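hey m, so remember when u said the tokens were messed up on ur end? i reran from scratch. heres the input so u can diff it against urs
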Amino acid sequence: MHSPWRVRRYNAFMNTDPHVSRFESLIKQGRIHDDMNFNEKVWALTVRIPRGSVATYGAIAHRLGSKAYRAVGNALNRNPYAPQVPCHRVVGSDGKLTGFAGGLRKKAALLREEGVEVRGDKVDVTAHAVKL
């Protein structure tokens, strides 16, 4: 009998496990491959956001040649690689904290821990945004 880990790796290699990508190592390095799907590309870009910085859903969509900022949020909601893929560093275009599986208080706490100033439910995007 094979271990669950081994089965999961095999399924990932065969691209049959929806929770693990065959591009996992590239995603965690912030590298994009042409054969990645949209979600995988979103995750790879999100890894590039350094501590103490944020990016917007729209900026990630724009970097991928899309206007689908909601699809970016949907991809981050399905992020299987947290905390290596720091989805808490992605905010609305106006700096508003939105959509975090751990709750918005947790998102704010993580950002503050990294040195991002959070006022109410917003961050100053002009002060903390990073160009992807």
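this time it looks ok to me. The helical segments are 4-13, 24-29, 38-47, 57-63, 69-77, 104-113, 125-128. if urs says something different then somethings off w ur setup not the seq
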